[in-house]
Design a protein that fits this description.
Oligomer: single chain
Strand order of the largest sheet: 1-2-10-7-3
Shape: globular
Largest sheet: 5 strands, mixed
Number of helices: 18
Number of domains: 1
CATH architecture: Orthogonal Bundle
Radius of gyration: 21 Å
CATH superfamily: Cytochrome P450
Strand content: 5-15%
Distance between the termini: 66 Å
Length: 426
């Protein structure tokens, strides 16, 4: 039996980075898919066919089965055919320019994940609370000094979690700007404000941009790694530099990719969620008043902001065997897009899912993923956000938008790019 075709405008919305910068077309597409085709065949010219998985329960089921649904067999993020081909030419056949935890499957994934897992347990990150609070207070003090107006993304949200993770990793403060720029270039390859150009200022294709950013990370972290092997410190860079896999030193490429994972995902998603919270509080004085009057709602605010923004919009998986999802036959080798943003608006799971509510309970969002690949730094991210709002909200008496916020153009990792606000401190 032929599988019914998804309307073109729905299919194109899922692959167009510009749609991820505009809330309405994307949410319209996801809402239609959840209602009519929760396991939907997507065919768009220039892309390999894939299945869009838009219901919460199905995304969870796939996440719980890493042996049946692999990360590493094909591209882990949506990539068009032309750039997939170029990447395979660059790598000698591999679909990956990067091989971090994200691109790994068993048996490698649990072995590599275990190297740093202890650093990000709830108990260990709580030990960092004092220092994180100092950094948060400094961020709030800088905001106070801005005389009632700022772009919250540029002036506050980007720098705060960046400084936290770079201290943990062991990157000097003077190099944080370089790490931010490389992160934005890695995740913003389709955004004119963020992507990298060549030396003449011309646009570079996707694969070339990623290759150039990886080369810059390699140049930087090769020196860090050599230094930590010669002079170990109490930081994450030392753990990575001296890590062993099955009794042998971790390979140089895998080490680089581990550094990159921590140096990018360790702050970008947290800054997006923090900025998203301020964006929504500035839009809704009632929600702002509610959380100011009851600081006990701050943990709930944090989870709601993470659900609302869902910084990692998707991951791709491929089936290793013939199987079924929600009664739909899936063949071995089929490619699937796990649409986390759609799962976080699933009407079967979330009451009034299109409303930002600081007191939402329960809030079993899937913004950190699910299963074996659940975000390693989720506890740190939530701690950072909680501490920041504990330091900010007692002093912030008013906040409103001071212009139109914007989002980055990216179908993989995206979030607020600019949130201009007016505010008052007491």
């Amino acid at each position: 039996m032929a599988v019914e075709k998804v309307p073109d405008e729905i299919a194109k919305a899922l692959v167009d980075p510009a749609c991820y910068a505009e809330d309405t077309p994307l949410q319209t597409a996801f809402t239609w898919l959840r209602a009519h085709r929760p396991v939907a065949p997507i065919e768009v010219e220039g892309f390999d066919p894939f299945w869009a998985i838009t219901r919460y329960a199905d995304i969870v089921e796939i996440g719980k089965n890493p042996k049946k649904f692999h990360n590493g067999d094909r591209q882990t993020t949506l990539t068009d055919q032309a750039n997939d081909g170029r990447i395979r030419e660059m790598t000698g056949g591999s679909p990956h320019l990067i091989r971090s935890l994200v691109q790994m499957d068993p048996p490698d994934h649990p072995i590599y994940r275990a190297l740093t897992m202890d650093w990000f347990t709830p108990g260990n990150v709580r030990k960092l609370e004092g220092r994180i609070r100092e950094i948060a207070r400094a961020a709030v003090a800088r905001m106070r000094a801005m005389d009632g107006r700022c772009d919250f993304v540029r002036d506050v949200a980007l720098g705060y979690p960046l400084h936290v993770i770079m201290e943990i990793l062991g990157v000097p403060e003077e190099d944080e700007g370089r790490m931010l720029m490389l992160t934005q270039e890695l995740f913003g390859v389709h955004d004119d404000d963020l992507k990298r150009g060549d030396d003449a200022g011309s646009s570079m294709e996707y694969a070339q941009q990623i290759q150039a950013v990886v080369a810059d990370f390699d140049s930087y972290f090769s020196a860090i790694s050599a230094g930590r092997r010669a002079n170990p410190r109490d930081d994450l860079a030392t753990v990575i530099a001296n890590a062993q896999i099955n009794g042998e030193p971790m390979g140089g490429f895998e080490s680089l990719c581990y550094y990159m994972l921590v140096a990018t995902a360790g702050h970008d998603t947290t800054s997006s969620s923090t900025a998203g919270a301020i964006w929504e509080l500035a839009k809704d004085p009632a929600e702002f008043a509610k959380v100011r009057a009851n600081p006990g709602l701050i943990p709930s605010l944090v989870d709601e902001a993470i659900r609302w923004i869902t910084p990692v919009k998707h991951f791709m998986r491929s089936a290793t065997i013939d199987t079924e999802i929600r009664g739909q036959a899936i063949a071995a080798g089929d490619w699937m897009m796990l649409c986390f943003l759609s799962g976080n608006r699933d009407e079967d799971v979330f009451d009034d899912p299109f409303r930002f509510r600081v007191d939402r309970q329960p809030n079993r969002h899937m913004a950190f993923g699910y299963g074996a690949h659940v975000c390693l730094g989720q506890h740190l991210a939530k701690l950072e956000m909680r501490i920041f709002f504990e330091e900010l909200l007692p002093h912030l008496t008013h906040v409103e938008l001071d212009g139109e916020p914007t989002r980055s153009k990216a179908s993989f990792v995206n979030g607020p790019k600019s949130v201009p606000i007016r505010f008052r401190f007491q």
